[in-house]
Amino acid sequence: MTEHTNKQFDADLEHVRSQFLQMGGVVEAMIHEAIEAIPAGDMTLVEKVREREKEVNRHEVEIDERISLILARHQPTAIDLRTLLAVSKMLTDMERSGDEAEKIATAVRRMYEYSQQQIPLIELRHMAQNVGNMLHNALDAFARLDPILAAQVVRSDKEVDKEWKAALRNLITYMMEDPRTISRAIDMIFIARALERIGDHAKNMAERVIYMVKGADVRHTGVKNTERLARGEEESAES
């Protein structure tokens, strides 16, 4: 590549990275607003989430097109090609995280529009906070090229899975004790499931960061091996 082409490639790559981080910030806001809307059925927040979902979709299309142009115009080195491939995969997970946040907002609207039988709202705030932290840390790991932080996100997914199972047990108990709560409890299960899926997407993105930085595919290798590979150590035979 000529120096001019190098500079153009670097600028294009930085634009992709920057816009992806912007997209992530929008999804973070969507998750926060969707959860904040639950206690009082705040329809203003619900509408904000729905509007932001359009912005997320716009980012996805624009970043995807830019990656295709970069690949067509340049011949990326191995590390730069890994970055582009990783972002392309992460883009799907980020867009789906936005979809899940929009599903939460839709469930909130349904719960309050139909004046469903009130049941105690199980505490999803802590689960939402954990999921929000996972997404934030995955973005931070991407921005800083930090595989160690990315491995922490992968480990965090286990705690979110535990919270999802606990929420499911609690809601099933409500439905068994009082059938009048079934409709609302189902919506709450829907919300908890959406949070759990966002956690899965954050984990996927964190795994992509490790691939991007270390060149190691840590999918399906187990948390301990993920942490080893993130540190640059050999993968253990035990998994």
From TrEMBL:
The keyword Cytoplasm applies. One of its GO terms (biological process) is negative regulation of phosphate metabolic process. Its main location: cytoplasm. Keywords: Cytoplasm, Phosphate transport, Transport. Residues 21-107, 124-209 form the PhoU domain. It comes from the Bacteria. It is found in: Cytoplasm. InterPro entries: PhoU, PhoU-like_sf, PhoU_dom. One of its GO terms (cellular component) is cytoplasm. Transmembrane segments: none annotated. It holds the Pfam family PhoU. Homodimer. Plays a role in the regulation of phosphate uptake. Belongs to the PhoU family. This is Phosphate-specific transport system accessory protein PhoU.
